[in-house]
Amino acid sequence: MQTSQAQIQIEHVSRLFGQTAALDDVSVSLSKGDFSVLLGPSGCGKSTLLRLIAGLDRQTGGAIRIGGEDVGDRPPSMRDLSMVFQSYALFPHLSVAENILFGLKVRKVSKAERLARLDLVAAMMGLTPLLARKPSELSGGQQQRVALARAVISERPICLMDEPLSNLDAKLRADMRVELRAIQQKLGLTVVYVTHDQIEAMTMADKIIVMNAGRIEQVGTPEEVYARPATIFTAGFIGTPPMNLFPGRLFAGQDGLPQGVGDAQLIGLRPEDIHIAESGPEADTRGIEYLGADRLVSARLGDTDFIMRAPASAPPPPARFAFGWAQGRESIFDAATGARLTQFDHPTASNPKKDLTHETA
User: Fold this and answer.
1) For residue 158, what pLDDT band results from cuts at 50, 70 and 90?
2) ABC transporter domain: which residues (predicted)?
3) Positive or negative: CA dihedral 22, 334, 283, 353
4) What is the DSSP letter of 231?
């Protein structure tokens, strides 16, 4: 299947509903062949942005370009893209084959070409034995494959996905993440994927666009948004558990922090970068969760609660303990604005290994 030079450019896009801004001056470029994920909590504007790209809604201001061309006045059928919805949107009275072929029939593609494409896509998706069944006879994962097959068979270079895995259980979601990514890479699709699930974003994305309250907080690779969050929102949203944030005053006089860090800053530390030490700030243990390979230790330093991740093989901490952290792994933020202060970044800090294995259904 061929793809054109698909690229999506969002330029100063806003969307107002009355006096409420669902999107506020959003600009981002999504590259050809990338798996780009719009990630954020409910109500952040990610689905609104996806609908604007699709042409299902119209922006209040700004421009949307696909392949360099302004598509603001084009209907969805003229934007050279396909879409997979959260509900799958399958026709219950049609067979799997008829559901997959529906769009091609509407576009009056010849019968011979329709059947040739169906054979190819059904084999790719593992749906060949199921083509005669109705959607009610399929599992959730099989229905998801049918919806994806209907998008892929269109041979459109861009595929938009609106939380397509949210109706599946945890194990099936994990399996489908691998399948979706493999299909996207095999076909070279430009995918724009909406989710509130950071595990989906971190495991599938080439680029993550973190959104909050109608604005973009950060754009970067999974490694970048995890290791170097641009704002305290990203620091608190990405990671399981998220980054710990300490008022700078709690570390006053401690070794290991850059000069100039104090009351005007927040210190961010990932749970896996904190360890028990012979000296350092002294915290009180509040609880311990056993997770198999490791333990999560809930503790308190002054009036700030935090979490430390430790190997399960290590002795549990005492009721009161001193702690340190991996030098250069700290993130430092402006306490007033919430923005990352890059002048304090350690020049040789390596990316911490992210741990997103503890998924809940």
Assistant:
1) very high
2) 8-238
3) positive
4) B
Distance CA 148, CA 325 (A): 45
| DSSP track, 35-56 | EEEEE-STTSSHHHHHHHHHTS
> Does residue 228 surpass a pLDDT of 80?
yes
Quote the pLDDT of residue 357: 36
Q: Which amino acid is at 46?
A: K
130 vs 142: CA distance, rounded Å = 9
Bridge partners of 128? none
* CA separation for the pair 209, 41 (Å, rounded): 12
Nearest residue to 39 via CA among 190, 197, 231 = 197
Helix ranges (H only) for 107-139 are 111-125
> What phi, psi does 274 have (nearest 5°)?
-100, 140
Closest-CA residue to 99 (of 107, 110, 109, 91)? 91
- What pLDDT digit, counting tens, does each position of 295-341 carry? 999 999 999 999 999 999 988 899 999 999 988 899 999 999 999 99
Q: How far is CA 246 from CA 10, 108, 270, 342, 345, in A?
A: 36, 61, 11, 17, 16
Note the pLDDT tens digit of each residue in 253-279. Answer: 777 777 788 889 999 999 999 999 998
Whole-angstrom distance, CA of residue 194 vs CA of residue 80: 19
> Residues 222, 223, 224, CA angle at the centre, nearest 5°?
95
In sequence order, what E strands does the chain have?
8-17, 20-30, 35-39, 61-66, 69-70, 81-84, 158-162, 190-195, 207-212, 215-220, 244-247, 265-269, 274-290, 294-301, 304-311, 320-325, 331-334
